[in-house]
Amino acid sequence: NAGVTQTPKFQVLKTGQSMTLQCAQDMNHEYMSWYRQDPGMGLRLIHYSVGAGITDQGEVPNGYNVSRSTTEDFPLRLLSAAPSQTSVYFCASRQQGAKDEAFFGQGTRLTVV
Amino acid sequence: GEDVEQSLFLSVREGDSSVINCTYTDSSSTYLYWYKQEPGAGLQLLTYIFSNMDMKQDQRLTVLLNKKDKHLSLRIADTQTGDSAIYFCAETAPPSNTGKLIFGQGTTLQVKP
Predict the structure, then answer these.
(1) CB proximity list for A61: less than 8 A, separation 6 or greater
(2) Interface-testing mutation among B98, B102, B105, B107, with chain A (most A C-beta atoms within 10 A)
(3) Residue B81 half-sphere exposure, CB side, CA atoms within 13 Å?
(4) Angle at CA of residue B104, ends B39 and B10, nearest 5°
(5) Which of A107, B71, B103, B106 has the fewest beta carbons under 10 Å from its own?
(6) Contacts of B6 (CB under 8 A, 6+ apart)
(7) Is A79 within 8 Å of A50 (Cβ atoms)?
(8) Is A96 close to B99, i.e. CB distance below 8 A?
(9) How many angstroms separate the CA atoms of A47 and A68, rounded?
(10) What are the backbone dihedrals phi and psi of residue B91, each rounded to the nearest 5 degrees, phi first?
């Protein structure tokens, strides 16, 4: 049971490049979400999904797109990378119950130069 | 909107108790959580408390909830160097069936030998 798998672990992009951060979970969780972690700001929600085919914006969605074609996968796309998107990105998944634990991936450290 | 606030840093000596505090704004949260992040890793659930409880104890961890003041605390007894990490409190963001979590900024706990 792999849990939540994120790839890549590290990435350097040039300003204006696009890329996709991959996230996959094998726990059949309905809820998946993407957060970015910046020093002193905690985790901020970018986008989330309550099931296949359903996505919604979080607190800081600008510059990012998501899709949820399957229960397992929830990729995050950076359309045109900017230095302000330098951050550590975490994908998380949860089961439906309110008390259920959120499982996090190991994170993707992204640097935009 | 929903907001969760934490102090950013706490330093204690090994063997002392640590108390990490958190305030939140959404009184409708049914569960409140403490997550731990070790260096270079994702977040892992440490403990949680249901909103109709005042206290929850789990081995060295004690969670206190003051719902009137919207204040949550995590006490770690006999703090060890292995407890050095970033601790995040989190609440469920409405609507509760979206699986969204709102995180505080994280408190870095430094344990000195």
Answers:
(1) A46, A47
(2) B98
(3) 2
(4) 60
(5) B71
(6) A42, B20, B21, B22, B87, B88, B89, B104, B105, B106, B107
(7) no
(8) yes
(9) 11
(10) -130, 155
Strand partners, A90: A35
Q: Over the range B23-43, which residues count as b (16 or more CB within 10 Å of their CB) and which as e?
A: bbebeebebbbbbbbeeeebb
The answer to whether residues B5 and B22 touch, using CB atoms and an 8 Å cutoff, is: yes
For residue range A25-72, list pLDDT tens digits in order. 999 999 999 999 998 888 999 999 999 999 999 999 999 999 999 999
The residue to which tokens 């890549």 are assigned: A8
Residues 6 or more apart whose CB falls under 8 angstroms from that of B104 comprise A42, B4, B5, B6, B22, B24, B88, B89, B90
Q: Are B102 and B46 in contact (CB under 8 A)?
A: no
Distance from CA of B67 to the nearest CA of A (A): 17
**Looking at the partner chain, which of A42, A58, A96 has a beta carbon nearest the beta carbon of B88?**
A42
**Contact assessment for residue A51 and residue A35, using Cβ atoms and an 8 Å cutoff:** no
Residue type, A15: T
What is the Cα–Cα distance from A33 to A113, expressed in whole angstroms? Answer: 26
Tokens encoding A26: 């094998």
- Mind listing the pLDDT tens digit for each residue in A67-91? 999 999 999 999 999 999 999 999 9
- Whether the CB of A101 is below 8 Å from some CB of chain B: the reply is yes
Calculate the CA B94 to chain-centre distance: 19
As given in the structure block, the two tokens for residue B50 are 């249901």
